[in-house]
Amino acid sequence: MNWTNAENIPVSNNQDVFTTRWRELIKNKMNFLSNNIDPRNTSCMVPEVAESWIRSKEFGVNPDMKTMGYMLSTAEIQELIHQNSLLIDTAVPLITTFKPLLEISGYLLVLFSSDGTILHQEGEPAILSSFNRINAVVGAVWSEKNVGTNAHSLSMRLKRPVQLLGPEHYCLQLEDNISSASPIMNEFGHVIGALVLVHQIRGDSPWKNNFLNLQAHTLGWVSSMGVAIEAQLKLAQRNYALKMTNSTLKATLEYVDEGIISIDHEAKIKHLNREASRILRLNQDEAVGRDLKPFFGKQSNILKALTSVKPIEFLEVSITNQINELQYLLSIKPISEDDNCRNGAVLRLANVDKINALVNNRVGAKAKFRFEDVIGNSEPIKKSISLSKKYACTNENVLIIGESGTGKELFAQAIHNECRPLGPFIAINCAAMPRNLIESELFGYEGGTFTGAERNGRPGKIELAKGGTLFLDEIGDIPFELQAVLLRVLEDKQVMRLGGQRSIDVDFRVITATNQDLYKLVAEKRFRQDLYYRLSVLNIEIPPLRDRGTDQLLLCQYFIDNYCEKRGQVPPKLSYATQMRIVEYDWPGNVRQLENAMICSVNTTQSIIIDLEHLPKEIIESNQPKQVTNTSTLAHLDVVSIQAAEVNAITNAIMRCDKNVALSADLLGIGKSTLYRKLKRNNLTHLIK
Ligand SMILES: Nc1ncnc2c1ncn2[C@@H]1O[C@H](COP(=O)(O)OP(=O)(O)OP(=O)(O)O)[C@@H](O)[C@H]1O
C-alpha cells in the first residue's frame, strides 16, 4: 500500500494526535524527497530522524526500492556467525522464549550485528514471509547506507532505544511498520548489535488506529530485552574469562614439575596436578575427595599443619604411597577468609633430589676437570692417567695416593666426569674440617638434634652426593670413631641422619685420597683395617712432580698461558737459566707449588722474559738443586736463542731505563755505540723513539 500522498488521508474533526503525526510525517517526507525541503525545520520531526533522512539521500538510497539491502556470501555469513557467536548464543535463547507470543501477535523480532546484518529473526509467519519477500533474511545487510533510515541503525548510532513510526522509515517498503530498537552493548560500552521489534500495521487506514499505547509497550519490551541480553552477555563473558583463567591455571599446573595439591578444611583433596598424582600414585579422578593425611603416616607436625592456619615452607617430609616412601620438601599455603578460619590450603611438593642437584650446581659441587686437562707427557703420569681411565667406569671405590699438591683431586674429578658427569661431585677435606662438625657434615641431622642446628634439619654431604661422587680428601685424617659409621654407609648404601629414625637410600661412588701411608696407619691402629680394604679396592698412585721430567716445564707454560689469558696479557717466556732452575728444583709442594711460583713470576717480571730473579725466593735460594745430568731434558723446549736473549735483554734494559740509551748501555755492560749497533741489527730502534 502507498500512503505517501498525505492528501489521501481523510482528516476528521476528532482526529487524534497519532493520525495528525502520521499525516505530517508523510507530508514532510514528500517535501524532502520531491522538493528538497529541509526536514529538520519541521516541528513534528525528531531531529535525529531528519538527519538520518538527509544522510540516506546523500548515500543515494532509493526510497522506492522493492527489495532491501544486499546478501553476504555463504563464507561471509559463516565468518559473521563465528564472530558474533557469543551474541547469538546469548540472545537467541531469549528471543526463542518469545516465539509463541510473536507467532500470534503480528510481531517480528530481529537480531542485527553491529554492521546491520540480520543474524536471527522470529515472528508471526505472515510478517516473516512478507519480510522475506523484501530480502529480510539471515545474512542480509540492512544498514543505513543501503536501506536508509531504520530503527536498528539509528539506535546503534545513538546508543539508545529508538522507535520509528511508519513514514519515519526512509523506504516506502517499511512505511507500514512501527519499529522499536534497542542497541546491545558489551561491558566496555561498545555496540555489538541491536534487537528490533517490528509491528506491521495492516489494513488500509493505519492512521485511524491509535498506536500510541502500543508504541510505549513495544519500546519498553525491546529495551528490557536488550538490557537482559547485555546482562547475560556480561555473565557469559565473565564465565568465559573465568573458564580461560581456569584452563590456563590448569595447564600451568600441569607444566610445573612440582606436585601441587589443593585441599579443603578437612585435608580432603580438591584438585591435584599431574606430578602430584604421580607422587601419590592416584589418578586425578580417584584422588578428589580422598583424605590426604594417611599419605603422611605418623608425622604429627605435618598432620597438624594440614589443617592449621599457619603456612609452612620447605619442610622435609616422607610420603608413603602404595609402593614406596619418598622424600619431598613440603610447603603449605593456607587459604583463609580471616586469620582464624581456614577454608583449605594449597600444598607444594618439591623433589628433594632435584633440589639437591640444583643446590649442588649453584654451590659449584661440580667436577670441572677431565683427563684432557691433565698436563703431562712423562711416563709416570701417562701410567696414572691410563690406569684411572680403566677404573673410571667401574663402580668400585678408588683410593688415590700421592704427595700433597700432585693433582689427586684433579684425577678424582676426571674419573667422575668420565662416568658420572651429570651427577654431583661432593668433595670433603677430612683434615680441614673440625672434628666435631665432620659427622654432621657427612651424615646430616634431623631438626632439633642439637643446639645451633637448623630447625628443619639438614642433609649431609653423603645424601647430597646421591647419583654422583663423594670425594674424601685426606681420608687418613677422618676421626677413628667415625670410620665404623662410614664403613656401614659404604656397605649398606644407606645413611641415617644424626637424631634420625629412618635410613635414606644413597647411591654414590666414593673416591678417597691420601698423602699418608694408610697401611702404616692401620698398623698403628689409627685407621680401621676393614675400612682400608673397603676404600682401596682400586689404587692409583700420582707421581711427585720431581719424577715427571720435562712435565715441569710443560706445566709452567700451561699455568703462565692460562693466567695471562685471563688477564689479557702477553705471556712471558722462561729464560734458559729459569728453565734450568725449574728442572733442578725438588718441588716439595708439587704442582700446586709450581702453579703458584708461575703466578708469582708473571707478576714480578715487567718484561716478556721470566728470569731467575723473578722466581719465588725459596726456589732462587734453594741450596739443594737437583743435578741435571742430561741437558737433552731441555732439548725439546722452547729454549730462548742467543739472539732472542739479546733482544730480550736490550728490550728489558731500555724499558727499565725509560728509553735512556746511556743508562741502558751501562745496565747491559756495553758501550753506547755497541748498543746503537745492536738496536739497528735487531730492528729495535723504535724502542728509543
Ligand atoms: N697434571 C696437571 N695438569 C694440570 N693441572 C694440574 C695437574 N696436576 C695438578 N694440577 C693443578 O694443581 C693444583 C693442585 O692439584 P690438586 O688439588 O688436585 O692436588 P692434590 O694432590 O689433591 O692436593 P692436596 O694433597 O693438597 O689435596 C690444582 O690447581 C690442579 O688443577
Keywords:
689 residues; alpha+beta; Beta-Lactamase; Rossmann fold; 27 helices; elongated; disordered N terminus
Overall description:
- Helix content is about 45%, strand content about 15%.
- It is an alpha+beta fold and about 700 residues long.
- The protein has five domains: about 65-235, Beta-Lactamase (2-Layer Sandwich), CATH 3.30.450.40; about 255-360, 2-Layer Sandwich (Beta-Lactamase), CATH 3.30.450.20; about 365-545, P-loop containing nucleotide triphosphate hydrolases (Rossmann fold, 3-Layer(aba) Sandwich); about 545-635, Helicase, Ruva Protein, domain 3 (Orthogonal Bundle), CATH 1.10.8.60; about 640-689.
- It has a five-stranded antiparallel sheet, with helices on both faces. It has a five-stranded antiparallel sheet with strand order 9-8-12-11-10.
- About 35% of the residues are buried.
- Mean pLDDT is about 85; it is low at about 1-5, about 10-15 and about 625-640.
- Adenosine-5'-triphosphate binds next to helix 15 and helix 23.
